[in-house]
Structures are given as structure tokens and as C-alpha cells.
Amino acid sequence: MKKGSSEGDSFQGLINEVMPDVRPINVEARVDLIKPKLPEDTLRAKRAEAARAEVEEYNRLSGEFIEPVDPHDILAFKRAGIQNGVYRNLRLGKYPIDAQLDLHNLTVEQAREAVFGFIEECCSYDIRTALITHGKGEGRKPQPALLKSCIAHWLPQLIEVQAFHSAQKQHGGVGATYLLIRKSDKRKLENAEQHHKRR
Fold first, then answer.
1. Quick one: which of 12, 87, 137, 151 has the most CB atoms within 10 Å?
2. What distance in Å separates the CA atoms of residue 1 and residue 15, rounded to the nearest whole number?
3. CATH number of the CATH domain containing 150
4. Predicted TM-score (pTM) above 0.85
5. Does the pLDDT value for residue 185 go beyond 70?
């Protein structure tokens, strides 16, 4: 018999003498818990919700209830701090259009991504005035003016958009919208320096 084994046996015997009532604890084998399987329609709903949340996280444009507008309604919006003269010039189409986006033949989801990407690009290139053509949607059924309604709902959510107004006839009328984009920090600094030099 090995020495280690003999010492172990005598140690165990000593414990039995000192604490005769002590017995080893029997440990039951662990059982892996099986998660209940969710119904297929619940899984599909969870996946759809996750996908929707990912889209909203991606482009920040809400997909909540969109209040419908009439095909012939004029879209108008101005943030606090925008001068009335600046807004009037935008409304009358007096500013040069530096960028355009056409949403014809796009689905709502495609339009949503296109609008967000367009505004981001305008900001990156310091574009101040732009035009989005969405159409009036007169003949669309069952939801007339769907994309136009989306534009009216989405644009105020984008802080980069300082103001917008339905376009003049030569630029598409109520089927298009002028946008005033916020100045970048770089452009603000340049304008401040130019203004300082004029003094």
C-alpha cells in the first residue's frame, strides 16, 4: 500500500473517532434547466421588433403613427431662432438649391433611409439649402400623399433641419419641399471670422 493512501486512511479514522455522527454530504448531480420553447409567432414578433428597433436606432426617424396630410397641403416648419426674413426667402425659393433628393418609386422604408442619408450628406458638405421631391400622391390608394405625410413627420425630428416649406411651382410645388440645413461648426466659425473682419 502506498504511503499517501495509508496516511489518508488513518486521518479519516481519526475524524470518525472525534466526530462519529458526521457523515459526508451526498451531492446530487446538477440538472441542466431547459428553457421553455417560445411559440413561433412570438419569436417572429420578437425578431420583427428587434429589426424595427435597429432601423430606428440607425436613422433616428420615428416609425410611429404618421398623421396623413392632404396631397394639396402646404408643408411648413420653422425652428425658434430662424429669422423671418430667412424663412421668407426659403419659402419663396430665393436661395440656390445646392442638393436634391427624389423619392419617387421608393417604399416608405427606402425613403426613410434615403432622407436620413441625404441630410447627413448635406451636413458633411456644408450644404445650406436643399430640395426633396416626394410627389403629391394624389392617385395613390388606399393612402394618398403617403411619402409627403412621412416627410412632414420626419423632418422636424432631424435637428439638422432648421426649416422647411413646400416648394414654388417651378421646383415641384406641393409635391416638393425646400429645406434649410443647419450650418456646420466649421461654417459658423468662418462666418464669425468674416463678420469680425468687416468691422
1. 151
2. 21
3. 3.30.1370.110
4. no
5. no
